[in-house]
Design goal:
Strand order of the largest sheet: 9-10-11-12-13
CATH class of the largest domain: Alpha Beta
Radius of gyration: 20 Å
Number of helices: 13
Strand content: 15-25%
Domain Mandelate racemase/muconate lactonizing enzyme C-terminal: 165-260
CATH topology of the largest domain: TIM Barrel
Largest sheet: 5 strands, parallel
Keywords: Magnesium, Metal-binding
Protein name: Mandelate racemase/muconate lactonizing enzyme family protein
Pfam family, one: MR_MLE_N
InterPro entries: Enolase-like_C_sf, Enolase-like_N, Enolase_C-like, Mandelate_racemase_C, Mandelate_racemase_N_dom, RHMD-like
Structural class: alpha/beta
Number of domains: 2
Length: 396
């Protein structure tokens, strides 16, 4: 059987930002590479940051993984270099389930069952699945039970957060290219958000799918009110209506609205999603592959299927390896509703790939090669990598 002989990690920082450098007028503060916005609770980077890992076996075959690490990816890099990577050396790369559990169990009694630690575990897990596919000469979808979707349906995200005129212009530009599903950011107040949604609906017509992301801004009563304002205009789903830790509040909003409530980008394990599903806190769940890995994502989507809850795969700040992993999982998800498509970040993400992931009005094309179906352009990686490490047999 093959054995893992090398683990390489790469901290990557691309000059184009996700939000940090594009909305300076909305900043409340900036310190170094990181900014805080007046309208967003989360911090952002002025760059597109991520962490890539490459795992290699004794015959030279390698697989790529990526953590969803938009802030201080050096943390995920250090965790893999010091804690996870040394225990991978000598392991059988086909032991994905036991390796994921080993990584999870390594810190659970210390309370690190989420956050940066699981981001690092996810990067290694994705790389191992890519590696397995390449060792077997089979696409990841085949290893996961068979492709169910020829293309992975998507919605256009990351649209203008400006006034109604700007929003409508951007939506109609994408509609003109044949896209039929869109997500709008909220944050201007309940009644302003309701009116803005109505204006976009009138412009784009009754058949488009329109989703909204509240980014945890509302109280329970406010979330219910804004949902009730939008429901008559065919609200596709209301994402992240209240604070992510408030599962009971999420359930209260979901029970009050006929339109679906979507949550999950901040969750990382089946245990997190189980509690939300049992409480009926969500009508749609949004797992993120770069925050949990492929092994756990498959468990989460199967759990959601048992509750008859559809999956809208989340896609945040990440690059090409992460995007490809999400597409591969989407291709085998029976209860798939849609997957996020962020055009600006998508273009940045493809810079590091030898052959780009493709997406158009029909959805994502599932890469057909072995494993994830992609490979990293090492010259491009060298230009954008700010630090790296290498572990081998002598380091274990």
């Amino acid at each position: 059987m093959p054995r893992i002989t090398e683990v390489h990690g790469f901290v990557v920082k691309m000059d184009q930002s996700y939000l940090g450098g594009t909305q300076q007028v909305h900043l409340s503060s900036q310190r170094g590479d990181y900014v805080r916005h007046k309208k967003y609770r989360s911090s952002y980077s002025v760059k597109s940051e991520t962490f890539l890992v490459r795992i290699t076996t004794d015959d030279g075959t390698y697989g790529w993984g990526e953590a969803q690490a938009p802030l201080v990816p050096e943390v995920a890099s250090t965790i893999v270099e010091r804690l996870l990577g040394p225990f991978l050396i000598g392991r059988d790369p086909f032991d994905t389930q036991s390796i994921w559990l080993d990584g999870y169990n390594a810190m659970r009694e210390r309370g690190h069952m989420n956050g940066y630690h699981l981001d690092a575990v996810a990067a290694c897990d994705i790389a191992l699945w890519d590696l397995k596919g390449k060792l077997l000469g089979a696409p990841l979808s085949a290893l996961l039970g068979g492709q169910l979707h020829e293309t992975v349906p998507c919605y256009v995200s990351g649209l203008a957060a400006g006034d109604d005129t700007a929003r409508i212009k951007k939506v109609m530009e994408w509609a003109g290219q044949g896209f039929t599903a869109f997500k709008l950011p909220l944050g201007n107040g309940v009644h302003a958000d309701g009116a803005s949604f109505a204006a976009v609906r009138q412009a784009v017509g009754p058949d488009a799918h329109l989703y909204v992301d509240a980014h945890w801004r509302y109280t329970v009563s406010e979330a219910i009110e804004v949902g009730e304002l939008m429901q008559p205009n065919r609200l596709g789903f209301l994402e992240a209506p209240v604070a992510p830790e408030d599962s009971l509040g999420q359930a209260e909003v979901a029970a009050a609205l006929s339109a679906p409530v979507a949550i999950g980008e901040e969750l990382r394990t089946r245990y997190d999603f189980r509690d939300r599903l049992v409480k009926r806190s969500a009508d749609v769940i949004q797992p993120d592959i770069g925050r949990m890995g492929i092994t756990e994502a498959i468990a989460v989507t199967a759990l959601a299927d048992a509750f008859h809850v559809p999956v809208a795969l989340h896609l945040g700040v990440g690059l090409g390896v992460y995007i490809a992993a999400g597409v591969q999982v989407g291709a085998v998800t029976q209860n798939l509703l849609t997957m996020e498509f962020q055009p600006g970040q998508f273009d940045v993400g493809n810079v590091l790939l030898v052959e780009p992931v493709k997406c158009d009005e029909r959805g994502y094309t599932v890469p057909a090669g072995p494993g994830l179906g992609i490979d990293v352009d090492m010259d491009a990686l060298a230009r954008h990598s700010t630090s790296q490490f290498a572990l081998g047999i002598d380091d274990a």
